Amino acid sequence: MDGHGSCLYLHRGSHPVAASWRLVGRLCEAKVQRGSRKFLEVGEELPPPAPPRRFLLPAKYRLPQTTNKQNFTSFPPYSSVCLYVVFINIACPSTGLQKVIEIEDEKRLHNLYERRMAQEIDGSVLGEEFAGYVLRITGGNDKQGFPMRQGVLTNTRVRLLMHKGHKGYRQRRAGERKRKSIRGCIVGQDIAVLNLAVVKTGDATIAGLTDDSVPRRLGPKRANKIRALFNLTKDDDVRKYVISRTFTSKKGKEVRRAPKIQRLVTPLVLQRKRARKAAKLASVLRNKEDAAAYTKLVAQRLAEQKEARRSLISKRRSTRRSQKVEATA
């Protein structure tokens, strides 16, 4: 076979006989290099088929290596090797902890398929330890690392034309747009990592997720959020309730560091606001005065042009009359 035709030539004596692939049977499994012919004698057995292609798996899921590459009978069956592993990243906002679990049984994942982002599920689908928990799907990534995007109602990847303001895109030039691949918000079989958040805790305590709590290192910076945290009114001074931290500097001194409060209304802020308002009002009045002066000047210039035109016409008329009088005399 030369690699271009659909038949294989069998030599019987000196007369070649063309036989189709359907008549030969398993000849289609024999690999023939392009540009060369392979001739088989009558009754000769075909070589064994090529071994199946193996996937590149993590070290703990790889198949055992054999010394004899031609002997593939020592490999375990395909069904006994786990080729589908999904990492479930569960976060508990109330405790500040996260836990990652691996699910190798695809039957346990069927309850997650066709679910969308921001949809709540029962925790018992992940295992008995999550009985009574309510989890919300917050996102995920597929096997190629493309993140799920809320609002893209599909379980495959799509290419969206992104511009400034879209997640996952930063424009390099002003007004630049670019088409990028995004995974839909519906969970499917190609998801490798799925992110969940605990909405409601169950009766059992899960180690590494609800058995301990990690306090937040930094407090809120916005003034309204500080008021909401300490239940303050608008008349209370927010600066007294800001969360600060104390640490020892390199020189051995105790240093207190507090964040800058954003959107804090102070007398200086009100003064600047009044100054901006007064400047805007003065600008409006000045623009009105300038517009009135310009309109008056334009009217004056038009009146001057009309007067100059009238004087020119009167001079021409007087000149013509004098010329007629001189001609008749």
TrEMBL record:
UniProt feature, compositional bias: Basic residues: 312-322
Pfam families recorded: Ribosomal_S6e
InterPro entries per the UniProt record, alphabetical: Ribosomal_eS6, Ribosomal_eS6_arc, Ribosomal_eS6_CS
Top-level taxon of the source organism: Eukaryota
Keyword Plastid: no
Any Gene Ontology CC annotation: ribonucleoprotein complex
Keyword field contains rRNA-binding: no
Keywords in alphabetical order: Ribonucleoprotein, Ribosomal protein
Region ranges (Disordered): 308-329
Matching HAMAP family: Ribosomal_eS6 (MF_00512)
Family to which the UniProt record says this protein belongs: Belongs to the eukaryotic ribosomal protein eS6 family.
Protein name (database record): 40S ribosomal protein S6
High-level lineage: Eukaryota, Sar, Stramenopiles, Ochrophyta, Bacillariophyta
